[in-house]
Amino acid sequence: MPRRVSMPAADDLFRPTAEQPTPPAVSDEPAGAAQAPVETPAATAGPRKPSGRVRHDEKMTVYVTSAELLAIEQARLRLRSEHGLAIDRGRLVREALGLVLGDFEERGEASDLVARLTVDQE
């Protein structure tokens, strides 16, 4: 007697992983009524903060040299041994991105990012 394997349906495979946003509340105001502007993360004041340890819905692949990967791993190990911070490489990279992008938003053209990228272009 052949055994038939049970496979999940396409709806199970391609279901959303994040909670769905709730639909906007129905308002009694006319359609053209003025509403408060919605702030985007870039428009908020204050330093940029990395996402930290949360479920991330987006993925980006970055290629690094073996020397850069070794430097990241050594930094991760030093953070663990010297500071008691057990973090993974992804968290380390997100924190570094937060620092660089925060500096860029705050200082613009005078930021370290612009200075380093300008040197690379020359």
Please write out the topology.
Layout: H1 10-13, H2 66-83, H3 89-107, H4 112-121
Describe this structure in words.
The protein contains 4 helices and no strands. Mean pLDDT is 78; it is low at 32-45. It is 42% helix and 0% strand. The protein is elongated, with a radius of gyration of 23 Å. Residues 1-57 are annotated as: Disordered.
- As a percent range, the share of helical residues equals 40-55%
Order of helices and strands: HHHH
Radius of gyration, rounded? 23 Å
The shape, in one word, is elongated
Our estimate of the beta-strand percent is under 5%
Q: Give a quick account of the main beta sheet: strands, pairing sense, barrel closure.
A: none
DSSP strand tally: 0
Structural class: mainly alpha
